[in-house]
């Protein structure tokens, strides 16, 4: 098992050339308004690779003055950007999509290096960015409002969507590039300007994104301040950012704890929030499930990205008649996975490291809590080396506090059910409501699961796992997952301000509801 990045390996994967092509140097400015980089005066963040703990590069953070300058630039840029026809904004996003296509391998590799997900997933994440660009280009011609028939003669009613303003994007470490793109590309075609605060665990990915789009912005004379990046600690980009009335929408992706704080602060000023928070995603495995499909779906969901996706499979609710069979198959699968843990840059690896020591602690704590509550560890329970842990699955009871909480590591909880009603109750019996799935060939069960009395999650799937989603759908979840929706479908509407218009093209002034008001 190769779990350290030797110099040879770095050479083999061309890391230095990749960093160079992405414009990453030993020390980087962390603030940009598009093509201009600031000479930042704040603290310095060091970015270490979870692969082997080595320093990749340093980033100079914004201080409060830098933040202020960015805000002013963004406000100025909005006045210009909102007037550009939406399809023209879409054309710029189309070119950004192409720039991302050209940089896909390099950016995917940097995602792997800085975040630790396997290279295939790093590439997949960049593909999501490209896909959302394509989607946003089409959307730029479809920012549809309605027309309504007025109750008054010679009147016309309609609603329209206008650009909203400055959109703050706070992103989590586990999707260091895609979450920005989901928000920024849709916001951009809607006529908004974006201020991105990435996770301090993965600032280089954010800097690389800004370097990649820079050429497109220059070639199209996009004003400085449309796409902004601010790398900073929470003392600079914390409460002051979310309380800033100049930012009407904050889109936050992160833990429920952070999301609650953001929602409270933004809510207090009656701003708008898109909250994309923690999940506690479950798969129901019904008696008729095609286990040849279910097992790979479960394993990808639970061990993929080392259990660090918001949609990772955390709980498995298995019908009692097939419980032992599923458990044994899972055991075999986890044993195979064990042989494929290692350097995520290596194409044979299926599971890379978790992000940092803190995540290793979360892994150890989760397992200790399961044992304390009386659970059985079926497989796993081992820190291998550094940030590498053995994916684990355990038999538990749903109501235990540790099962109710999201532990953002590869620990899967399994439990039994007798009736579909009971399975749905267990399924919904957690505070979070992001992704869910049922494996069944029984049409009644499938339909019930996605009906009003079924899964209470924002995403409910049949015969595919919980992990990952296509950009075309509205992405997000209910309850403590925060209720936000982003990416596809009609999520764009949250990035715009809605206005209802009534036009009178007649010669009288009739009042609504037939009110008489004769002067
Ligand atoms: P986190 O909550 O620790 O951090 C999220 C972001 O919030 C980071 O950029 C962080 O710097 C920022 N932040 C922290 N304190 C802040 C403050 N006071 N003000 C403003 N911003 C602040 O989350 P994480 O560890 O980076 O990511 C993992 C979590 O994110 C998991 O709970 C996961 O489920 C969730 N997540 C959810 C989705 C989704 O779409 N639902 C997607 C990815 C990750």
TrEMBL record:
Transmembrane segments: none annotated. Keywords: NAD, Oxidoreductase. Its EC number is 1.2.1.3. Pfam families: Aldedh. This is aldehyde dehydrogenase (NAD(+)). Belongs to the aldehyde dehydrogenase family. Homotetramer. InterPro entries: Ald_DH/histidinol_DH, Ald_DH_C, Ald_DH_CS_GLU, Ald_DH_N, Aldehyde_DH_dom, ALDH7A1-like. PANTHER family: ALPHA-AMINOADIPIC SEMIALDEHYDE DEHYDROGENASE. Signal peptide: none annotated. It is an enzyme of class 1 (oxidoreductase). The lineage of its organism: Bacteria, Pseudomonadati, Bacteroidota, Bacteroidia, Marinilabiliales. Residues 40-500 form the Aldehyde dehydrogenase domain.
């Amino acid at each position: 098992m190769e779990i350290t990045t030797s110099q040879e390996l770095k050479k083999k994967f061309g890391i230095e050339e990749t960093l160079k092509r992405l414009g990453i140097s030993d020390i980087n400015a962390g603030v940009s308004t598009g093509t201009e980089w600031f000479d930042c005066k704040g603290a310095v963040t060091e970015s270490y690779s979870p692969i082997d703990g080595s320093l990749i590069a340093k980033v100079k953070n914004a201080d409060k003055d830098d933040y202020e300058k960015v805000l002013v630039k963004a406000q100025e840029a909005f006045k210009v950007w909102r007037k550009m026809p939406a399809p023209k904004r879409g054309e710029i996003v189309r070119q950004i999509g192409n720039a991302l296509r050209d940089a896909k391998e390099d950016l995917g590799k940097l995602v792997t290096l800085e975040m630790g997900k396997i290279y295939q997933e790093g590439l997949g994440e960049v593909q999501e960015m490209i896909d959302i660009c394509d989607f946003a280009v089409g959307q730029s011609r479809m920012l549809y409002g309605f027309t309504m028939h007025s109750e008054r003669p010679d009147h016309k009613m309609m609603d329209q969507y206008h650009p909203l303003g400055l959109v703050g994007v706070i992103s989590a470490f586990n999707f260091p590039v895609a979450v920005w793109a989901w928000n920024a590309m849709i916001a951009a075609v809607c006529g908004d300007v974006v201020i991105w605060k990435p996770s301090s665990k993965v600032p280089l990915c954010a800097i690389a994104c800004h370097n990649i789009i820079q050429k497109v912005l220059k070639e199209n004379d996009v004003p400085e301040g449309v796409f902004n990046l601010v790398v900073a600690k929470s003392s600079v980009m914390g409460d002051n950012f979310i309380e800033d009335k100049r930012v009407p929408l904050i889109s936050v992706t992160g833990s429920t704890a952070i999301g609650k704080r953001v929602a409270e602060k933004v809510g207090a000023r009656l701003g708008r929030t898109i909250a994309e928070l923690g999940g506690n995603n479950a798969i129901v495995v019904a008696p008729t499930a095609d286990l040849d499909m279910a097992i790979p779906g479960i394993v990808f969901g639970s061990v993929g990205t080392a259990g660090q996706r918001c949609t990772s499979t955390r709980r498995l609710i298995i019908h009692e008649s097939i419980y032992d069979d599923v458990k044994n198959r899972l055991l075999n699968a986890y044993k195979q996975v064990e042989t494929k843990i290692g350097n995520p840059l290596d194409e044979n690896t299926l599971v890379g490291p978790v992000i940092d020591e803190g995540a290793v602690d979360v892994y150890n704590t989760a397992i200790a809590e399961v044992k304390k509550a009386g659970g059985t560890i079926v497989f796993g329970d081992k820190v291998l080396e550094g940030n590498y842990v053995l994916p684990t699955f355990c038999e538990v009871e749903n109501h235990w506090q540790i099962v109710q909480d999201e532990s953002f590591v590869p620990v899967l909880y399994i439990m039994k059910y007798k009736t579909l009603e009971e399975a749905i109750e267990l399924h919904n019996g957690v505070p979070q409501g992001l992704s869910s799935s049922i494996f069944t060939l029984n049409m009644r069960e499938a339909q019930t699961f996605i009906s009003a009395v079924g899964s209470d999650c924002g995403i409910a799937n049949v015969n595919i796992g919980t992990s990952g989603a296509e950009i075309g759908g509205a992405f997000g979840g209910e309850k403590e997952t925060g209720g936000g929706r982003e990416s596809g479908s009609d999520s764009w509407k949250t990035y715009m301000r809605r206005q209802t218009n009534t036009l009178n093209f007649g010669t009288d002034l009739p009042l609504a509801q037939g009110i008489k008001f004769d002067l």
